[in-house]
Amino acid sequence: MALLESENIETVWFKNFPKRKESFVLCFVYKPHNSQTSWYTNFKNEVVNGLSINDNILLMGDFNIDFLKPLPSKWSTFITTYGVHQMVVDPTRVTSTSVTLIDHIYITNPTSLINVTVPSYAQGDHCPVSCTVNKFAKLIKDKSDSHFEIKYRNFKTFNNEMFLQDLSNQPFDIIHEINDPCKRSSGHVVLLTCHCFR
Prior knowledge:
Deoxyribonuclease I, Chain A
């Protein structure tokens, strides 16, 4: 959603339309640890624009704001003003000298998320954060006596080694040839989506 994205900060916005559920806006965020204080204003402006499109917002990413320490006043004000809830509770970066929670998931409706996790494996120095969107609205039936279909993935026979092997065979190297950070992020999403949901 290019109309929400600013040239001054690294974000990628998507509008999601799940079947039989209310739409929501998803934003992936990267805030460099040395970013200027203007980052807060620029990001706030993007979120305000996002809220004008949809009240249901999900913000995920590396915010480089340690939630285990007192928050910067601008960030505390942002959380309070826009009614977003930070859902990650476990540290996301653990080194031999520090433990921090700098990768966050924010949502306007906290009951819409289930299974917020921080898996302990990571290729980089951050553990990934993940969540499952439970609902933004109840399933809708056409008639009270009609049936409806729910599609889901069955993990009973999931083979982690095969999944990781298959994932390692994805052509992620082509993404490094893309100079535009928004298109590069979108390329990651497309490759992961194609891999995970086929």
